[in-house]
């Protein structure tokens, strides 16, 4: 199973567009809880 999550940026662009950073930062499931 794969889970993908990201921190949102502060852009004022259309909220339906993706607003996540360009580099991936891998974290454990404990950090997401």
Verbal overview:
The model has no long low-confidence stretch (mean pLDDT 78). The chain contains 1 helix and no strands. The protein is elongated and about 30 Å long. It has 33 residues and is mostly loops. The protein has one helix at 29-32. The two termini are 17 Å apart.
Give a brief outline of the structure.
The chain is mostly loops and 33 residues long.
End-to-end span in angstroms? 17 Å
Average pLDDT value? Answer: 78
* Major β-sheet annotation: none
Strand coverage percent: under 5%
DSSP, total strands: 0
The helix-and-strand class reads little secondary structure
Total number of helical segments? 1
List segments where confidence is low: pLDDT < 50 over at least 5 consecutive residues.
Answer: none
What general form does the structure show?
Answer: elongated
Helix content, binned percent: 10-25%
Helix and strand string, N-terminal first? H
| Rg, Cα atoms, Å | 12 Å
Write the layout of secondary structure elements.
Layout (H helix, E strand, L loop, with lengths): L28 H4 L1
Describe the structure using short key phrases.
33 residues; little secondary structure; elongated; RmlC-like_jellyroll
């Amino acid at each position: 199973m794969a889970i993908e999550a990201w921190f949102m940026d502060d852009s004022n662009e259309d909220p339906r567009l993706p607003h996540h950073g360009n580099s991936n930062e891998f974290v454990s499931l404990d950090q997401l809880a």
